[in-house]
Amino acid sequence: MRLGVINLTHSSRAAIKFAQAAEAAGFWGVGIGDTVPERYQDTYVTAAACFAATERVHIGPTVTNTVTRHWSVLGATARTFGELHPGRFFAGVATGDGACHSVGLTPSTWAKLEEDVAKVRSWAPDDMEVHIAASGPRGVEAAGRVATDLILGTGLDVTALRTLSARARAARTAAGITTPLRIWGFVTTYVAPDKATADAARISQRGRSVGTARFSFSSTFEDKGVPEAWQPILRKRLARYDFSNHGKGEGNTNGFLFDDYPDIQEYLINRFQLLGTADECEARLRQVATDAGLDGCWFTQSPLTPDEDPIQRVRTTGEALQSLSDFEPAQA
User: CATH code for 2-193+276-326?
Assistant: First the structure.
């Protein structure tokens, strides 16, 4: 099972140390965020610096889009990295939900993204992996037709993971593609030293749970296993999502959208976050991977406090979950 960790530091110098720590901890990949430009540095310049400072780990945007980054730019970038660091660059791509909205642009459609990815792949090295992040039927079907890997942004809900994976693979078969499609989970992760610290993190990271829910549920609830009675409430409240807070941890006002619906708030935290002690996190992810047939999982690790050391977080997560690197769940 592949494990990847997404860099959310706001400094390219910090990102280099992050990538080095991830490599030392045994992660397969490091994702470089490509969103909210007032808070993050340039993705590809940062990726180049991280490549130069590491030897093995795979590095790529997680995720970029073809609105703020035209497909020709991504294609040329992929070809360049393929020459300089053969086999290590991958392209994580989606429609650009938060990235586009945060700068006043409209995200791509899945049909347009599918066209763009096909164009990127015609320019890029033949062995470049394309990881498409999606959370609904149209997105996973597009991924089935043009990607090597599908990142499911539906949290750790086994029903959704199994149903959408099957849908993507059916689309792949219908397109006449015989190479397998790898399926990844995606979850915000915090390996806590004790239960009290984990409980505190559940409260402070509510905003990130809501942000992932907005991405996951914005288009449809189809195939996502969301309780029907909660769907109207979720739709109404997520429509109030404040993109000026997108990507923030502490101080993210989106975390208060469900304060008057504690059951829904708890549901979102449980679904979209992997929080607990090392043993709890490892056991839960192993069970989800087994039940859903995951080939990998991407972790985001937003800081809980302004002075927290993100490098130590990478080490801690690697130590807690590295046993899963040799784990091979059967296809769901």
Answer: 3.20.20.30
